[in-house]
Amino acid sequence: MNSMQKVSAQPRFTNLSRLFVPIAAILVFAVWFSFAPPGLLGKADFVGYAICHRIGERSFHIGERQLPLCARCTGEFFAAGISLLFFALVSPRKSGMPGWKLGAPLLLFFLAFGMDGSNSYLYLIKETSGGALANIPNLYIPNNTLRLFTGSGMGIVLASILYPAWNQSTWKEADPGRALDWKKLGALIGIVLLADLAILSESPLVLYPIAILSVLGVLALLTMVFSMVWILLMQQENEITSLKQMWLPFLAGITLALLMISGIDLLRYQLTGTWGGFPLG
Questions:
Q1: Rounded to whole angstroms, how far apart are CA atoms 77 and 213?
Q2: For residue 6, is it within any domain?
Q3: 257 with 104: CB under 8 angstroms?
Q4: CB 248 within 8 A of CB 17
Q5: Residue 253 resides in a domain
Q6: Beta strand 61-62 pairing with 65-66
Q7: Residue 142, Cβ neighbours under 10 Å: how many?
Q8: Is 161 exposed, middle or buried (0-12, 13-18, 19+ CB in 10 A)?
Q9: Residue 199 forms part of a structural domain
Q10: Cα-based torsion angle of the residue sequence 180, 182, 183, 187 in order, rounded to the nearest 10 degrees
Q11: How many domains does the chain have?
Q12: Which pLDDT score, from 0 to 100, does residue 7 have?
């Protein structure tokens, strides 16, 4: 196929996608609502089930009701959701990456997340295994407070990288300025830290909206990633000029995200037979 044929085929394929994507979205949403547990938190569980171990001892609870994500994932994805909203408000269309200096604190957040996660995983093996594995050394006894804080730092890292990358891929006239600077980083850390302290109160008035926000953070990150993939596949990089033009990539992104979540959920449920966390015994 020569270049002229490729150009003429592109509009036809785009028109077909405008019909196909909404139909696919309706089908995927129907599956989600049909098979997910009942209630708003039940639908949130459906999302958390695909990405989180959901071990009860490592999660916050509203009374006897476990949150959709463990403490670490709650921190990670609520912080990512807050950070994306923060960037959208204070750094619209900015596509510059943090740079080396701002990369230093982000790297520290990443290393803290990895260290606490590794230590926590080793402690889990130690708790659930016998023999020589019971003597695995640990740096410290892990707890949900550290999981929440280190997860929150990682959420800031994810949003700080993904937000400018998304702007680089989508907008025709993206702002080349950096989305994150020292002042914005300080404000963002302060906002997330206050939210973390509120979560540690374990008040249902705090945990319920945080449960929903953390799941929305998951969907936001996945939708952005899959919308970028869609834009690249459709060869529409840097062609978006307004939010109205984002409806198809956005719908394709969230449809692919829910399709992936549904597939993982189905496989996990077939293996475990429960919507609960991974069994420890």
A1: 8
A2: no
A3: no
A4: yes
A5: yes
A6: antiparallel
A7: 22
A8: middle
A9: yes
A10: 80
A11: 1
A12: 45
